Amino acid sequence: MKMILVTLLMVLLSGALFAGVMPAAEEMAVLDAMVDKLMAAYNAGDATAFYADWAAMMASICTPQVFQTMFVDNYKKNFGDYAERSINADETVVMADVPNGLLVYTAKFTNNEKIKLSINLFKEGDSWKFQQVTIQPAQ
Length: 139
Known about the structure:
Elements: H1 2-17, H2 25-44, H3 47-50, H4 64-79, E1 82-87, E2 100-109, E3 112-124, E4 127-137
Antiparallel strand pairs: 1-2, 2-3, 3-4
């Protein structure tokens, strides 16, 4: 738990220092494809597919029970199915030489068309992996 809090703090602080740092187009295309898979699994209620691209350090919480409680019983119940998204370049921070990143999207869900979809990233080797997904009403 301490590792998660420290990592989250690092991401938040790096976001404050480097707000609006977009990855290269090729890297963004890879990340977008990963998010497409993630959100298709969210809509399908498929925990295994949802957690396919998550960081190894998150294995203890990447369970069907957590998926059911957090993503189905909470987010899906309140916001519905995912429909579409667009990147928020002002809040996204993904830098090649920093092991943490943050993707921020403005998204539409079936029960709410003004959602902020935030995805924390962690670099394992040369590949980005998901660390956290937050779905909340946009301000």
